[in-house]
Design a protein that fits this description.
The structure is a single chain. This protein is of the alpha/beta class. The chain has one domain: 3-Layer(aba) Sandwich (Rossmann fold), CATH 3.40.50.300. The chain is 50% helix and 12% strand. The radius of gyration is 18 Å and the shape is globular.
Length: 192
């Protein structure tokens, strides 16, 4: 097993950070954490309600504190909220204390995934696709600045996406090759 510390997933809302993160943690036989889940535990309720009553600045304060705590934990996979890169301190902390993977997708693909999700506060607007385009334009440079790896996700299956991530991590020496599935399958057995 490789001697990785924290592997952080960043990207837009709907890019699959939590889903992929859980599967990646399972493959690496390690723990999984999600900043949004930890924030909801801390604030005692849903992020959307906190966002509406306390505002985005207060939410980002809590998010920064939770991120700093999670980055101090040993060896795990961390899925982050889509706006975590908005603060310089978060970008620097992520890059310095973890291996960062940006799951990149087009606004149109993200919209296809989140169009029926009413739990994402920034997307509760009249034209969510337009909002996703604006957010992508604003955040893409920040995600790229923070990431060690950029994975274009498009529409691959979760196993395919997971293999793409594991291969990048293997090539970079972050994880041991023995845990990365071979793309050619097992070696054929010769008849005796």
């Amino acid at each position: 097993m490789g001697a990785f510390g924290v592997i952080s997933l960043i990207g837009m809302p709907g890019s699959g950070k939590s889903t992929v993160g859980r599967q990646l943690a399972r493959q690496l036989e390690t723990r999984f954490a999600d900043t949004d889940t930890e924030i909801e535990k801390r604030i005692g309720g849903p992020i959307r309600a906190f966002f509406e009553t306390e505002g985005e600045v207060r939410f980002r304060d809590v998010e920064q504190t939770v991120l700093a705590e999670l980055l101090q934990r040993e060896r795990h996979v961390l899925a982050t909220g889509g706006g975590i890169v908005l603060r310089d301190a978060n970008r620097h902390a992520l890059r310095a204390a973890s291996t960062v993977i940006y799951l990149r997708s087009s606004p149109e693909e993200l919209f296809r995934r989140v169009r029926h999700d009413n739990h994402r506060p920034l997307l509760q607007v009249g034209d969510p696709l337009r909002k996703l385009r604006e957010l992508s334009y604003e955040r893409d440079p920040l995600y790229r600045q923070t990431a060690h790896f950029v994975i274009e996700i498009g529409r691959p299956s979760i196993p395919t996406l997971l293999n793409m991530i594991l291969m990048q991590l293997e090539l970079a020496g972050v994880v041991d090759a023995s845990i990365v599935p071979s793309p050619v399958g097992p070696r054929p057995v010769r008849p005796s």
